[in-house]
Each structure stands twice: as C-alpha cells, then as structure tokens.
Amino acid sequence: MANRGGAAQRPNSQTQGKICQFKLVLLGESAVGKSSLVLRFVKGQFHEYQESTIGAAFLTQTVCLEDTTVKFEIWDTAGQERYHSLAPMYYRGAQAAIIVYDITNMDSFGRAKVWVKELQRQASPNIVIALAGNKADLANSRAVECDEAQAYADENGLLFMETSAKTAKNVNEIFLAIAKKLPKNEQVSGAGSANQGRRLVESDSSAKTAGNCCK
Amino acid sequence: MFRRSMPNARRNRRMNRSNQLSKAVETVETMEESGEQGTELVSHHGVILKSHKSYDCAGTLSLMQYGRNKYIEWKAAEVNVDSDTQDHEWAVVSTGRSSRHRSNSECARAEPLRLNTVNLKSFRVSRHRYGQHLTFAQRGESRSFITFIFHQGNADVFVKSLLGQLKAYRSRRDRNLYDLAEEDSQETQELRRSFAELNLFPETAPYGVWNFIGQFRQRPYEATMGAFSKITDALLYKPAENDDSSVAELLNNSLMEEDAVIANVSGEEYEVIGSKATPILPSRPPVTRGAPLSVERWAQATAEDGRVTDVTAIKKIIFHGGVNPSLRYEVWKFLLGYYSWNSTYAERMCLRKSKVEEYYQMKQQWKSMTPGQEERFSDFRDRKSLIDKDVKRTDRVLSFYAGDDNPNVDLLNSILMTYVMYNFDLGYVQGMSDLLSPLLQLMSNEADAFWCFVGFMDRTCTNFDMDQAGMKLQLTQLHTLLSILDPQFTHYLDQHESGNMFFCFRWLLVLFKREFTQENIMRLWEVFWSDLPCPNFHLLFCAAILDSEKETLYANNSGFTEILKHVNDLSLKIDLDSTLSKAEGLYLQLMNIESELPDSVRTIIGLEPLNPVDGDSENDSIEDDDGDCSNHTEHDSSIETVSLGALGGEVAFERGINFQYM
C-alpha cells in the first residue's frame, strides 16, 4: 500500500457559499482500476492487489471549488459483464460518471466506448461523463494511444484524462474537472431528469442542502 | 372523525343508537350494560388516542371479542384527572345531525372507546416524526377516521397481531393500507339501513343510499367522491339542518387527512392476506453454540472400514459447533459431497485416484491449447482473461497467497481454469475465486481442492446465473422471511427504498466470504454445509445480522445508500457465534408457529406447503439448489422471468429492483 498522493482536500470551513451534492458512478471493464481510483481519491490509498468489487461500494468525498463545496456520492460497481444488469440501478439518477479503461488493455477501451453509448442512451440526459485511461504508470505496456482516446473523448464531449491510481496522477484532477463541469445551478442541472438530486444529505445540516445544489 | 358528542349524552346516546350511527363506536359502559364478558385477543400498551383536538392520552389498545363480534377497544391508562360526573361518550359525528359541543372538562378526560370491527373499513399504518400512526376508517360515507399513535413506532407489531385475528386485504398500491373484509352481519345491514334514515340525499333516499353502497363496492373511489359532493350539497342546500362546521370539517379532514384511504381504494388493488395472515412470533429462545466436532468423536463415528456412521449426529455437532480445524481436511470432503459418507477407506482411495486422474485430464485440455486455437476461441479467451484478473487480487493479504510469484496463486488459477473445462457454460464468474480460496488453502492439494470446489459450486452455482435469477430469488426469499420475523423492520426497509434487499447481495453471492476472516468463514461454511436445521439457513443468518443492525439503521434513518454502506462496512465486524445463535433462535421461533406460517415461508425453510397450488406466486416457488450447475446457464427459465413477464433475462433483475424501489 502506498500512501502518497493524498485525498482530495476537504472543505476547510463553512465559508463556502454553496454546497452541492452529486451522484457519481464508476463504470468500466473488470480490473481496470475503478475501486483503486475511488480509494485514491477518497482515502489517498493504493492497494496493489485491490480485491474485486462484489455488488457495489458506496463512498463519499468532498472537493472545494472557489465558491462551492461539491460533495460526491460515489458508486463503485462490479465490472464483470455478468453483473452488467445491475449497473442501471447505479447510474440511474447519476449526474456524473467516470468510465474507466486500462491503457494497457485495448479490450477495456472498447468496453468503455460501449459504456459511453449506454449512458448516452439511458442515463440522465445532462450527465457529465469523464473517460479515465487508468494505469498510466504502465505506459511501457501501453495498448491504447492517448491521442486516440482524446479524439474519441472530444468527439463525444467527454472529459478525458489518463490517470494512475498507483501514482495518484490526475486522480484528484479528474474529479475536480467533473466538479467544475457540473452545473451548480439547480435550474440547469435539474432539467429533464426526474431522479436527479433525489437524495439529500440527511445527516448533514439539511438547511444547507437541497437537490443538486443549494445556496 | 370520532369525537365526543354533547355532554348531556344519555339522551343523545339513545338517539344515536336509534339511528345506529354510534354502532361503530360504543362506550364500554354500553357494552358492560349488556353484561357480556369480553376476551382480550390482542393488547398493546402505551398507545395514544389522537383525538380531534390536540388532546392526547395514552392507554391500552386491544382487540376484544364480545360474543361473535370483535372490537377495537381503547382504554386510557390511569389518569389523575378530576372526573366530573357528567356522562360522556364517544360517538361518531353524524354527517349532519349531531352538533359539536365540547367542554374543557371533556378534553381532560378520556373515555374508553370501542369500535366494532364489522363497521371498520380499513386501517393504515403511517410513519411520523414521532412514532407510527394507526388509523382506522369507518365504513360508510361518513368517512370517519380515528387515529392511534404508537410512540415507540411499533404499530406494525399491533397490526401484525390484528392480521392474525381479522380478515384483511393488503392494498397492492399502498403497502400500508389494509382493507377489512366486509361481513354481512345483521349489524352491518342495520348500519347501512341507518344511512337511509339520515335523509342525507333527500331527493333519492333511500334508493340513493343503496345505490351508493352498490357503487361503493364496485368503484369505491368514484362512489366516495360522489358521496362527498353529495355531502357538500347537503351542506349547501340544507344549512339549517346541518351543523355546517362539523360537516365542513369532516370534508376537510377527509380530504386533507394524511392517512386518507380514499385514493388507494380500488377493487383490484388488493391481495388476500387471509384470515390468519401474519402469525405472531413467540419470543426467541436462547441458543448456545456447541463444541466443534472433535477428533475423538470423529474417530468414534468412523467404522473400521472407514464408513461414517451416525451421520445425522455428526452433522448436528457440526451445525452447533463446526469442525475441529485439524479435521477439516477430511470432513469437508464429505460435507461437500466429494466423498460419500457411506464409502469405505478402500472405496475412497479408489475414487480419489480416479478423480485425480480426471482432474489432470481436464487440466491438460486447457494447458494444451495452442495460441492459434486460443485466438480463434474467444469464449475461452474471455474466461481465461477473467480468471487472470481475479486470481491476482484474491486474498492476497493472506500469507498463503501473499507476495509476488506465489505458487498458490497459480494453483488458484489452474483450478479455476480446469473448472472452466469442467463446466464451460458457467465458466468463470466474479466471486468464484473467493469461494475457492479457503478450499485451496485448506486442501493444499490441487485436485482435492478442485473436487471440493465442484461440490461447493453445485450448491451455489445459481448465484452466478447470467440473469441473476438465483440471486434475485434469494433476495426475495430473504424479504419474505423478514416480513414474518420482523414486520416492522421489513416495513422500514420498504419505506427506505431497500425492500429489494440488494444491500445483502455481497453476503449472498459469496456466502459471507468478504465479511469474515478466513478462519471464521471456514467455520460458517461448514455450519451451512451441515444443511441443518433447514434449507436456506444462510438467509436466517442474514436476518440475524440485520436484527443486530436495525437499531443503528433506524437511528440514522438510513436510506438505500446508507444501508448499503453500513452493511458493506460491517465486514470483519460481525460476531460469528452470537449471530449463528441468533439465526438458530430465529429458526426456532418460526418452528414454534410452524402451522401458522404462510406457504411462502414454509417452502423457504423446507416445510411442506399447507395449500399447494399450481402456478402460485414467486415467493411460493423454490428452486432446487442442488441442481446440476450445467442447467443454470445463460437464460434459465427462472422465477424472475415468470414474475416479470415479458422482461427477459438480464434486465429483469435490474428492472425488478428499479420498478419498485428506485
């Protein structure tokens, strides 16, 4: 286990103007590093032999933008095709998704494209999708060219970064980029998807949170 | 609403009785006057009567039997209030006649209250900030409600008891609403007739009232709304004869009433619960765990030629205490069906020899696959790749599998690859490496571990169905069991988007492998493999864990995500022995009321159904877990397909979940 990289910064005080809460789901082929990305982002940890995810895991992490605190509710899913039928349960109502592939595995990139299509077809219309080419530390065994993935992302309006949960490269960055891209205005983000922002923070001060975002 | 009638009530009572409006609510004195001795069927203390004004009073709510009729009766607890000598009574506010006079002294005094269940139409449980409310609705167009508050939030318990005594139907649309079966007793008829005398519909009475009742039966929603409009008419056009404030209030409350039943009433929306729907569980007997199967006891049970005698007794010991770790290597082969209990040493030696040969033969098949073959065989390649990915990350924290180039990781790989050749259709599914890991660690020997794994997979292969039918079935069965074991908690889960029980997915998929240490998982599995005390004991084990956690969930008012997170975080924090004891206790509780259990529960725990019917609901079907794995492949003709009709295979499970709960 490596411990460098650090978790994302937590909100330091109550001075933030807004607190926004978003549901984010991680999707992608089995063993591309979905859980590792989350673990790095949430706990600043990395396990070389991170066990496979069964069912789903749920974690939260908060990031601070200039005037907004963004709380991510992260659903980490099992990647194997056999459990594909459960995925809609997780991406339903999600405002953001990170689709992960392994840069050393061309098949996983192909699978990522299938996920993109599925989300574009079935998820909330305004969902912010990021593509993460993980295991960037294994660039020696690269099978997916960065340019190719970037071109694909551009074509489909996705955020894109090559990440490494192991070295922490671009991990916080990709979550931050998503946070920035997410609409902080209820009217914008709430449009067109009944389930968005359904979940409120009940344990936190409820006065501060409502729907996607509150002021 | 039910409320007190005017203070000088003697005369009114006579009057009310004469028009039968007070049939539903009678004072206890009235009943006692008739000299009947009642039998208490159900009783619950600390229940608050939510009176019309904010006057609340705690007391005992019971179901009483007087003669042939059953009554909901509420009596205030001893209160230190000056009781004036005025004669009070509770009476239904007649829709128009009885005027509403309340004195302060009335509010300080709580008369007993009695509702004849014949005159009750439905009841509904609702959750509130302070506990639960149980609201009864009266039959007839008066739309009267009476609400009791259960501060402890255990109205469900009372309802469960009621369901054991009254014939009720649960609304399909509103799971908290129960419609009481109508009994055409003489009294009911009298009550109905009394509506005619109300002269509420002067232009059509009595025809209009009978018409109303007929309509009410067929189309309660429309009929009731129709009646409301007529009440409004009465209010508007006959102001002199009606106490408008009470009628207006009645209307208002009926429409605003948070527990209003009206919108949920529709003929086909009910499912029959039956007259003895939810049996009441007796208290849980204390259960203690036993000692593990000892070397001596095992030796004693093994005959000279090696046959294991006394299998039943041995299994009982294993169920209660597991197996001494030094015996596992041997005993597990029996438990997993690799060896038959009745085999001799010689037969086992012979069997093992041939099984080892068979194993290596199958291993050779994938080992000898040329790169070219592999390239043209994508199904094989996919399985191989999945296994490669998973063995690398299976239990690597255990010393047995730790470190780079650990040969045991290769063994794990070999066994799973060979299993692919043994059962190519099932192949490899995530979770299977978890199931194999402890077996390999125990057996060390590749071939033995493989055959034990085959036995284990024969038991659990439906967990890995392509369409998740096996998992879905278990989650449904767990919900069914919980609804009997703990209706309140089940209700809570239903209300918190968690009635799909999906948060137990990991527990069930890999049989708690991720929840316990390797030593404890071995203990738990051998207990399960004893097949005692009933099939699906693992579901009772789930229920036992949940029983320990529910208070935390209640306290945090956890919803779907929080429950899932909480349950995931229980990993390595569950006490094995006390949970096993509790699970056995749950089983004993069920068996104590065996004859009252619904068939849906009976079949889950291996009892013969009492009323076997063909094509019954999904809960009543039970899949043969011991089936051959090879039968459970891509599109099993599963329960799920049946219950969800046109939705086929893969999406069915997800839909099943999402439809109801997400």
From TrEMBL, chain A:
Enzyme Commission number(s): 3.6.5.2
UniProt keyword terms in alphabetical order: Endosome, GTP-binding, Hydrolase, Lipoprotein, Nucleotide-binding, Prenylation, Protein transport, Transport
GO molecular function: G protein activity; GTP binding
SUPFAM superfamilies, per the entry: P-loop containing nucleoside triphosphate hydrolases
Locations listed in the record: Early endosome
One of the GO BP terms on file: protein transport
Domain of life where this protein originates: Eukaryota
Broad EC category: hydrolase
Catalyzed reaction equations: GTP + H2O = GDP + phosphate + H(+)
Alphabetized InterPro entries for the sequence: P-loop_NTPase, Small_GTP-bd, Small_GTPase
Pfam families, per database record: Ras (PF00071)
Cellular-component GO terms for this entry: early endosome
KW Protein transport (keyword) present: yes
Family: Belongs to the small GTPase superfamily. Rab family.
Alphabetized PANTHER family for the sequence: PTHR47978
Name of the protein: small monomeric GTPase
Gene designation per UniProt: LOC113206862
TrEMBL record, chain B:
Subcellular location field: Cytoplasm
Key word DNA-binding present: no
Compositional bias of kind Acidic residues: 615-628
Chief location: cytoplasm
Gene Ontology molecular-function annotations: GTPase activator activity
UniProt keyword list: Acetylation, Cytoplasm, GTPase activation, Phosphoprotein
Translocase listed as a keyword: no
Record Pfam families: RabGAP-TBC
Origin: domain of life: Eukaryota
SUPFAM superfamilies documented for this protein: Ypt/Rab-GAP domain of gyp1p
GO cellular component, one term: cytoplasm
Region (Disordered): 1-22, 610-635
Domain Rab-GAP TBC: 322-532
Function of the molecule: Acts as a GTPase activating protein for RAB7A. Does not act on RAB4, RAB5 or RAB6.
Quaternary assembly: Interacts with non-phosphorylated form of RAB8A; phosphorylation of RAB8A at 'Thr-72' disrupts this interaction. Interacts with ARMC12.
Name the UniProt record assigns to this protein: TBC1 domain family member 15
